[in-house]
Design goal:
29 helices; seven-stranded parallel β-sheet; alpha/beta; five-stranded parallel β-sheet; Rossmann fold; Serine Threonine Protein Phosphatase 5, Tetratricopeptide repeat; globular; about 55% helix
């Protein structure tokens, strides 16, 4: 017994000073003397875990727990080990056993919170983290993780509070600085975001924070000068990072964001998007993964079906699903085998609530980038169709890999991705300007008609619009607030100045700070009419359609026109005034009007935009005539099979081009 205690004491001492191999040998020596010595088995499990051999860790810890079922430290470590091998059910079970035996241990609760979070049981995880904090108020990791859940739940003020508490508990905890910067960026506080990204860089040399800091843009820009300043900084910082030879191991975890906001500046983004993509290609070799079947692929089909995969995070009750459902349903099943790859957090088998799109096969993609790549590659696709890229990070980073011989992207986020492995960008000559290809790194494909097949949003919907006479004159601009370019302010001011009895209705932002910032900007830029600008609460779809039908006129923002909202407005006959811009993202309404052969509300310049808008507000007869004209012509943009047929021809041609 004395000899065992001597080995145990030496093993623990060497373990504490990091001499893991010496500690392991001493524990093994104990087991030679007593194979059932719990402390030795426990110690070997801990060492195996630190060495990254989690399966061996489970082996030793299971033996220790079987010998002594009432050791909370053993059970807790076993729970952690099971989490690391991916067995979350056993992880949860063992951690709960440990908590029963030692309920005041905050570390046990914290690790249980991790397991619940891994299972996307975020409400339960939040309760566990809160209990951890009650037991240990300065538990840095629990404070940070609870803030992460609050951020996910869009409770940004609460998230900021807990991130600040995490930083107060440990000023040098870089992840909390980075996460807090992310919240500030989301809320539009770019100065605070920059400070905390810089702190994460200074403390932890965080590569992801360096890239996030380089991409930092205001959600609601103050002015055109501010836009130009930030774009210049972004371009300059990307050049610097490219020259630094940085290494990125997991871009989804380390960066977790896209260059989303730049598309709303009304400028050519191709160079900056390509710079960013080139940086990722150089810095992260894993992104250049190629599915094995791609190198051997041949276009000779001999009557075989195309195997096509559609991928998005937004295959639920979302604009992206509504824009693409008609195409997916319309592709003939005798020619196409369709696989839906969903990144949605909604748990589905293809038939769960919110998932209306069904293919021949439904795949819930892993949130791990490498696993998701392998899932898609395993289906040996002919065509991979991204309905949107740039709205969230996982599809963006997936698109760097060669997962199918033909890879294309639609205009869910209507700007070039800059990604070299994307072959085609699907658009329309009804929407694109002359020499449009210059704004794309992908090969631009311009269909002769609209590239989407969408049903009439008003079909089957019983609407009860409010009379315009009851509410006075109402002008509506139903767009996300980040679409409001600073240059649009003065146009709104002139319109309201010439329509003294009209009010302008905007929608509240996704975050209260967005509404506050835009309201403040409008008060500065057009103070004489700012008191007639109202922000309406967001409502359900029927309420929104009623509002569209009730107002006098819909205004398209300059530089970024409506998409689904224009379809919806035209479906109920409400005129949309639009000023086509230099890039496709400001020309969608033009394309719809052109298809309908109704272009009365398409302006050629800012003066005509104001004239059309004012006339629709003040001239009731012309307003009525336009509504009737729109209703009579709207069938041209709905339920068209032309989009499906043009896609089929494109897929055939793209297959031939690979030869």
């Amino acid at each position: 017994m004395v000899k065992i205690e001597k080995y145990i004491e030496k093993a623990k001492r060497t373990y504490l000073v990091g001499q893991l191999e010496q500690a392991r040998k001493n524990y093994l020596a104990v087991l030679q003397l007593d194979p059932y010595y719990t402390d030795a088995l426990h110690g070997l499990g801990q060492i195996a875990s630190q060495n990254g051999d989690n399966k061996l860790s489970v082996f030793y810890l299971e033996r220790a727990a079987a010998i002594d079922k009432n050791r909370p430290d053993v059970l807790a470590d076993l729970g952690v080990a099971y989490r690391l091998v991916g067995n979350l059910m056993r992880a949860e079970l063992n951690l709960k056993k440990a908590i029963i035996l030692q309920p005041e241990n905050p570390h046990f609760h914290y690790n249980l919170g991790l397991v619940l979070g891994d299972q996307t049981r975020f409400d339960e995880a939040a309760e566990v983290y809160q209990h951890t904090i009650n037991l240990s108020p300065n538990h840095t990791l629990a404070l940070n993780n609870l803030a992460n859940i609050l951020k996910r739940q869009n409770k940004l003020d609460d998230a900021i509070s807990f991130y600040e508490r995490s930083i107060s508990a440990d000023q040098n905890y870089a992840p909390a600085h980075k996460n807090l910067a992310d919240v500030y960026e989301t809320s539009g506080d770019v100065d605070s975001a920059r400070y905390h990204f810089s702190s994460a860089i200074r403390i932890g040399h965080d590569v992801g924070a360096k890239i996030r800091e380089a991409m930092l843009l205001p959600v609601i820009p103050d002015s055109l000068d501010q836009i130009l300043e930030y774009r210049h900084k972004t371009s300059e910082r990307l050049d610097q990072l490219f020259d630094q030879n940085i290494i990125i191991e997991d871009p989804l975890r380390q960066i977790g964001a896209t260059n989303f906001l730049m598309a709303y500046h009304g400028m050519d983004d191709c160079l900056i998007q390509s710079k960013l993509a080139n940086l990722y290609v150089k810095s992260c070799s894993a992104l250049s993964f190629e599915a094995p079947h791609c190198a051997k692929w041949t276009p000779e089909r001999a009557g075989e079906k195309y195997k096509i995969g559609f991928v998005s995070k937004f295959f639920f009750n979302h604009t992206i699903q509504r824009l693409n459902k008609g195409l997916i349903f319309g592709l003939p099943r005798d020619r196409f085998e369709i696989i839906i790859f969903s990144l949605s957090d909604i748990s589905t088998g293809g038939r769960e609530e919110g998932i209306a799109i069904e293919g021949d096969k439904f795949v819930k993609l892993s949130s791990d980038l490498g696993t998701a790549r392998r899932q898609i590659a395993g289906d040996r696709l002919d065509i991979l169709y991204y309905t949107d890229i740039g709205m969230e990070p996982q599809t963006y980073f997936l698109a760097f890999s060669r997962l199918a011989p033909i890879q294309c992207v639609a205009w869910g986020h209507p700007v070039t991705t800059g990604i070299p492995n994307l072959d085609y960008f699907i658009s329309s000559c009804l929407i694109e300007p002359e020499n449009a290809h210059r704004a794309y790194r992908e090969q631009l494909v311009q269909f002769s008609g609209l590239p989407i097949c969408i049903s009439d949003p008003s079909d089957g919907m019983v609407l009860s619009p409010t009379s315009q006479e009851d509410k006075g004159r109402r002008i509506f601009c139903p767009q996300s607030l980040f679409k409001f370019h600073p240059g649009f302010d003065k146009i709104l001011g002139v319109i309201l100045g010439q329509c003294p009895k009209a009010n302008l209705i905007l929608l509240e932002g996704n975050h209260p700070t967005w509404t506050k910032k835009l309201r403040e900007r409008l008060t500065r830029s057009i103070p004489q009419v700012a008191d007639r600008i109202y922000f309406a609460s967001r409502t359900d779809r029927r309420g929104f359609m009623n509002l569209l039908a009730s107002v006098d006129v819909i205004l398209d923002p300059t530089h970024f026109s409506g998409g689904i909202t224009t379809f919806e407005a035209l479906s109920v006959g409400t005129p949309v005034v639009t000023l086509p811009s230099t890039f496709m993202r400001g020309r969608v309404s033009l394309g719809l009007y052109t298809k309908m052969r109704v272009t009365d509300c398409v302006a050629s310049d800012e003066l005509e935009y104001v004239e059309h808008s004012v006339r629709l507000v003040n001239d009731r007869r012309w307003n009525t005539e336009m509504r009737q004209k729109i209703l009579e012509a709207k069938s041209a943009i709905f339920e068209s099979t032309d989009a499906v047929n043009q896609h089929i021809r494109f897929f055939d041609n793209a297959s031939t081009d690979i030869e």
